[in-house]
Amino acid sequence: MKKQQTILVTGATGAQGGSVARELLSNKKFNVRILTRNASSEIAKELQEEGAEIVTGDLNDRESLKKALKDVYGVFGVTSFWEHHEKECVLGKNLADAVKEAGIQHFVFSTLPNYSKISKGQFQVPHYDIKALLQEYTKSLGIPATFVHAAFYYENFLTFFPLQKDDNDNYFFGFPQGETKLAMASAADMGGVVSTIFNFPTEYIGRTVAVVGESRTCAEYAQIISKILRVNVQYKYIPGEEFAASGSLLAEEFASMFEVQRLFIPDHQLSLIESYGLNPSMQTFEKWLVNNKYRFNIQKTSIANRVSAQLA
Ligand SMILES: NC(=O)c1ccc[n+]([C@@H]2O[C@H](COP(=O)([O-])OP(=O)(O)OC[C@H]3O[C@@H](n4cnc5c(N)ncnc54)[C@H](OP(=O)(O)O)[C@@H]3O)[C@@H](O)[C@H]2O)c1
Predict the structure, then answer these.
(1) Residue range 32-59: average pLDDT?
(2) In this structure, are residues 207 and 148 in contact, taking their beta carbons and an 8 Å threshold?
């Protein structure tokens, strides 16, 4: 019997890599090896129980990558800007160099478009621009690669952008996206897309795929949240300068990101079609909310909220 090929999944204890590792494990077509800095974490142990081989390593340690890549066919790569900031670039290059050296046959790398270029230098968005640079670097090495661009996670409503309450006790979320449609997807749906890409290397090597589960205005997302969580939620447009003025590095970064999307990226139709083609189980925002509403901490304090939600 032919020996199964192995795929190394980085970031498997996190959102995107976790989705990829679980999907590959459930499909049983490839052996799954995961790279983690902490093999004794709960998530690493869970993945091991599900059948993954665990290797301890660090994107900052090139020797550990060499060992992790021994006898590997394919690699899923993801890098964390939020933990490493500008150093993300070094870590991503370490991974690409190791992939090249190991002669990996299919590298699926989670990167993003270059927002500095798209906005003709008007905005710098390091967590996008660094990943775009990593994409270019990987191409320059001649690695057989597919690039996946994850849209704004639905899960951001549980992390970076939780619902807030205004002075009248009404829920809202606000950022500078304005009336331009915002591409979103569940990070949990990345695995279904990536697994199909690994199944069709000839078709997908050399391609970039944007993973999008929904493309709507923020006002429409607010209506869907109101309907599913049964509470009145409004979207508030906060202009970029105002959003950035809170002073934190993160606020400036996000303000510039939304500004590029608001001003330069109006349409995601083809990405939606391709994403659902690659992963027919992609979740719409409404479906994801139904599955995840228990994770929202909603307090229905005002009668007005309940009445308006029923009317919505
Ligand atoms: N939030 C969004 O809407 C969105 C959309 C598109 C793209 N992104 C991008 O997604 C990236 C993060 O992906 P995620 O959300 O899947 O991450 P995550 O859930 O925060 O998990 C981070 C993963 O990276 C691994 N990791 C971090 N540093 C490492 C290192 N030095 N060596 C080896 N592994 C390391 C961690 O593994 P261990 O701790 O086990 O070692 C963990 O599995 C960010 O760069 C962000 O820009 C986010």
Answers:
(1) 98
(2) no
Kindly state the tokens that stand for 199: 């199944």
Indicate which atom in ligand 1 lies nearest the CA of residue 160.
Answer: 1
Q: Locate tokens 């270059």: which residue?
A: 114
Q: What is the pLDDT of residues 219-255, one digit of tens each?
A: 999 999 999 999 999 999 999 999 999 877 689 999 9
Question: Are 256 and 240 a contacting pair, CB within 8 Å?
Answer: yes
Measure 79 CA to ligand 1 centroid, in angstroms: 5
The tokens of 292 are what? 């995840």
136 burial via Cβ count (<10 Å: 0-12, 13-18, 19+): exposed
CA angle 231, 232, 236 (to 5 degrees): 135
Does residue 149's CB lie within 6 angstroms of at least one atom of ligand 1?
no
pLDDT, residue 250, reads: 86
Rounded CA gap, 269 and 256, in Å?
23
Q: How far is CA 38 from CA 11, 35, 198, 237, in A?
A: 11, 9, 26, 41
Answer whether 218's CB lies under 8 Å from 176's CB: no
User: In terms of residues, how long is the chain?
Assistant: 312
Give residue-wise pLDDT tens across range 61-113: 999 999 999 999 999 999 999 999 999 999 999 999 999 999 999 999 999 99
For residue 60 and ligand 1, the question of a CB distance below 6 A is answered with: yes
33 lines ligand 1 (CB under 6 A): no
Tokens at residue 94, please? 């370490």
Unique residue bearing structure tokens 């002075």: 167
Q: Supply the pTM of this predicted model.
A: 0.95
